[in-house]
């Protein structure tokens, strides 16, 4: 089998270079678009449930630690505080359910690292002095 070589004119070469350049530009545009779309995909229902369970568990651990230290925790305020800081950290407008899929692992680590602010821990007698119920 014999291969024939065909010589290209300078115009043909220029046309091929232009096509290659346009193809490269299109490739880069599609990669940017793909990346933007990837950032818009939220976690699956299963992963959302894992985030929620992790948050509940983490607040529960803080409540146990506080109780062991003779303190109490206003759980409603603690939950509100944690999820508020979570939404701020991840730039979410509604809830943890809007967590981007590509940040799921980061979300779990963030919850693990979150610390209950000390002002949410009080002496049990302090609550009674304010007239609040336990």
**How far is the N terminus from the C terminus?**
92 Å
Mean pLDDT: 88
Number of helices: 5
Kindly state the percentage of residues in helix.
55-70%
Tally of DSSP β-strands: 2
H/E element order: HHEHHEH
Give the radius of gyration.
28 Å
* Uncertain stretches of 5 or more adjacent residues: none
Q: Determine the strand fraction and express it as a percent band.
A: under 5%
Secondary-structure content class = mainly alpha
What about the largest sheet? 2 strands, antiparallel
General shape: rod-shaped
Q: What is the spatial order of strands in the main beta sheet?
A: 1-2
What's the arrangement of secondary structure elements?
Blueprint: H1 10-40, H2 45-68, E1 72-73, H3 75-90, H4 104-113, E2 121-122, H5 124-129
Antiparallel strand pairs: 1-2
Helix pairs in contact: 2-3, 2-4
Which properties best describe this structure?
single chain, 134 residues, mainly alpha, two-stranded antiparallel ribbon, 65% helix, rod-shaped
Overview of the structural elements:
- The chain has 134 residues and is an all-alpha fold.
- Helix content is 65%, strand content 3%.
- It has 5 helices and 2 strands.
- Strands 1-2 form a two-stranded antiparallel sheet.
- The chain is rod-shaped.
Give a short synopsis of this structure.
The chain is an all-alpha fold and 134 residues long. α2 packs parallel to α4 (104-113). The chain has helices spanning 10-40, 45-68, 75-90, 104-113, 124-129; strands at 72-73, 121-122.
